[in-house]
Write a structure and sequence with these properties.
Layout lengths: L1 E3 L14 E5 L3 H12 L3 E6 L6 H4 L3 E2 L10 H22 L8 E2 L2 E5 L2 H17 L6 E4 L1 H7 L8 E5 L3 E2 L2 H14 L3 E4 L2 E6 L2 E7 L2 E4 L2 E4 L6 H4 L9 E11 L10 E4 L5 E5 L3 E5 L3 E2 L9 H14 L7 E12 L6 E5 L2 E8 L5 H16 L3 E3 H4 L13
Parallel strand pairs: 2-3, 2-14, 3-10, 6-16, 14-22
Antiparallel strand pairs: 1-23, 4-9, 5-9, 6-8, 7-8, 11-12, 12-13, 15-18, 15-19, 15-20, 17-18, 21-22
Helix pairs in contact: 1-6, 1-9, 3-9
Length: about 400
């Protein structure tokens, strides 16, 4: 069932001449810009280029079916988002951008106990029946699990899900922006703030100039509150620091290795071609914008990784990235018109799921900006659920 966004009528029956500014060019902002440009809107993307963007640091696991979250609207939204990746990759390829980095490599939820593995198998089989993109679900004994991911601890069995995928957030963002520019979008560097005329946002001020707009989409990640502060609005999104480490295994063909998700932990492992394995990540609520690799964070990431995959002990520690996830009070995204300013669309609050949800959420944000209906599970993410968001 679709729900129409709380938004004024479209300016006209056509997108010709409709100008939309997207503040923020992380995965969600870039996807919004691409969708709008693909549909013919006049798009400007403004980005401040601040260090710690979640898209640049995130590992890129697309596997909502293996989530420990209960079934419900949130899982439905995430499953739709994962399914949308297939459509997005096809659209980008048709536009001449085949380097999305998205690849289905399968995923393993690992555990040592038989009852836990049996329960996982039942739950994931049911989800795969509801969501065909999950693929097939199979029990693996420890030997078969290690054959797929050699560094794995010998005692861990797994439930294997063939549809799980990986994506390099940096590469996908760059590809989306190139595709948007190829469709006529323009990018501007600098901090943006709303330009208000007679109480209505009519554009943004960025890099010393005013860029006029019919609509503004704020997709600034953990910084989403900043451009809206001049409106006297408080946005319930706060930075949650994540530290994620990259290991090197020279001479090892890691390209086919699946995603590894411990059943009892929010940490994970995944591999990319070229002997690179990624381990993460901390979830540091209350961190503020403290862009540091900390001793405690590094210890947590390494300890969790080596408990699951002791075979990584001799790998080279290449780098540790830090990103600030935009976290909302209820753990769910904010997607919809800004209360009190329906000409502004807010798209933020993805927490650790940004690379899964961002591309599909960008499509829905584009629909909201155009006054079009969105699915019921997306309508439930309206920022109005937190009240009017007005500053006291």
């Amino acid at each position: 069932m679709a729900h129409r966004a709380r938004f004024p009528q479209r300016i006209s029956g056509t997108l010709a001449g409709m100008r939309i500014i997207v503040i923020g060019s992380g995965i969600a902002g870039a996807a919004t810009a691409y969708e709008l440009a693909r549909r013919g809107a006049d798009v400007v993307v403004a980005d401040a280029g601040l260090p710690g963007a979640a898209t640049a640091a995130g590992a890129g696991i697309v596997s909502p079916w293996t989530s420990r979250a209960p079934d419900g609207a949130a899982l439905t939204f995430a499953a739709r988002a994962a399914a949308y990746y297939r459509t997005l990759v096809q659209r980008l390829a048709e536009d001449g951008h085949g380097d999305s980095s998205f690849e289905v490599v399968g995923g393993m939820v690992v555990a040592a106990g038989e009852p836990e593995l049996a329960d996982l198998h039942r739950r994931l089989t049911a989800r795969a029946a509801a969501w065909p993109e999950a693929g097939s679900v199979t029990r693996l004994d420890p030997a078969r699990a290690r054959a797929l991911f050699p560094p794995l601890a010998p005692g861990l069995g797994a439930v294997h899900v063939t549809g799980s995928a990986r994506v390099d957030g940096r590469r996908l963002r760059e590809t989306l922006l190139r595709a948007a520019v190829g469709r006529g979008a323009r990018t501007v560097q600098g901090r943006a703030e709303p330009h208000v005329t007679a109480g209505t946002v009519t554009g943004v001020r960025v890099a010393g100039d005013v860029e006029p707009a019919d609509r503004v989409v704020v997709a600034a990640g953990a910084w989403s509150a900043e451009p809206l502060a001049p409106l006297g609005v408080t946005v319930p999104v706060a930075p949650q620091r994540g530290q994620i480490s990259h290991f090197g295994l020279p001479g090892t063909d890691t390209a086919p290795w699946p995603v590894v998700l411990p059943a009892a932990s929010s940490h994970y492992l995944l591999a990319f071609p070229g002997g690179r394995v990624v381990a993460g990540a901390t979830r540091e609520t209350g961190s503020g914008f403290d862009h540091r690799v900390t001793v405690a964070g590094q210890r947590e990431v390494l300890a969790e990784a080596l408990e699951v995959a002791p075979g990584l002990a001799d790998a080279t520690l290449l780098e540790t990235r830090v990103g600030f996830r935009p976290a909302s009070p209820d753990g769910e995204p904010l997607l919809g018109p800004l209360p009190g300013h329906p000409e502004v669309v807010l798209l933020s609050g993805f927490g650790p799921a940004g690379l899964t949800l961002g591309p599909y959420a960008g499509v829905l944000a584009a629909r909201v900006a155009l006054g079009e209906p969105v699915p019921a599970e997306a309508a439930a993410l309206d920022p109005g659920r937190f009240g009017e968001l007005s500053a006291p």
